[in-house]
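Q: Given only this backbone (234 positions), what sequence would you predict?
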């Protein structure tokens, strides 16, 4: 065969290969079908699946479209296990059937750092992002709601995308131990002010112990701002 003939033969082969169609059913498509069956049974939680049994990938030659139909779904909420039958249809005709089994995990949307946050840095809304995590990973000590995180201060370095534990953050300290501030006492239209030394650090709204600079008397008062504390008039 001459050079021109070889080129023509290769082109014909490539054209023939390109004409062969195949429909593909992936593991992700099977997971979507099982998710829909969960919804049909009244469970609308978003889920992630791990398959332990059954065929989870199909390549169907000479087919334009493939569809998955799931039936006989059963699940154990205590162990997060599931089983189901999946039937694969190619261009409307039943092609294959497989018995699937595995585990399912309910997903929750939570807030985590969108960037690394240094120790002592105040957390603002633009420093957070939403991610989806398995619910079984969320323990009581984790803070997941933005409104409970924004405005707090990082007590240790926080890494981007990592869960925030309650010990990792705290209120922003505005009066540090040893600072001399103005204490205010209000009662029945009367107001008395005095200088006091903070015996402990405190955030806005917190009650801290102080000592009157002149008398040396110790007392507790609420932090109002960086220079003022208020003594309960009662």
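A: Predicted residues:
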């Amino acid at each position: 065969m001459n050079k021109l003939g070889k080129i023509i033969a290769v082109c014909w082969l490539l054209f023939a290969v390109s004409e062969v169609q195949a429909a593909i059913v992936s593991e992700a498509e099977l997971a979507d079908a099982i998710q829909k069956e969960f919804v049909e049974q009244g469970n609308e939680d978003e889920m992630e699946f791990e398959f332990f049994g059954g065929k989870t990938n199909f390549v169907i030659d000479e087919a334009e479209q493939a569809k998955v139909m799931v039936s006989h779904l059963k699940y154990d909420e205590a162990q997060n296990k599931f089983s189901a039958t999946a039937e694969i249809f190619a261009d409307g005709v039943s092609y294959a059937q497989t018995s699937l089994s595995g585990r399912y995990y309910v997903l929750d949307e939570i807030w985590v750092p969108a960037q690394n946050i240094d120790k002592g840095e105040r957390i603002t809304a633009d420093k957070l992002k939403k991610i989806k995590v398995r619910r079984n990973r969320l323990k009581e000590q984790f803070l997941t709601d933005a409104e409970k995180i924004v405005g707090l201060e990082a007590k240790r370095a926080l890494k981007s995308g990592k869960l925030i534990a309650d010990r990792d953050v705290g209120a922003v300290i505005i009066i540090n131990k040893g600072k001399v501030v103005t204490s205010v006492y209000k009662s029945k239209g009367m107001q008395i002010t005095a200088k006091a030394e903070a015996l402990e650090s405190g955030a806005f709204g917190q009650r801290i112990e102080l000592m009157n600079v002149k008398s040396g008397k110790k007392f507790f008062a609420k932090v109002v701002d960086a220079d003022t504390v208020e003594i309960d008039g009662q």
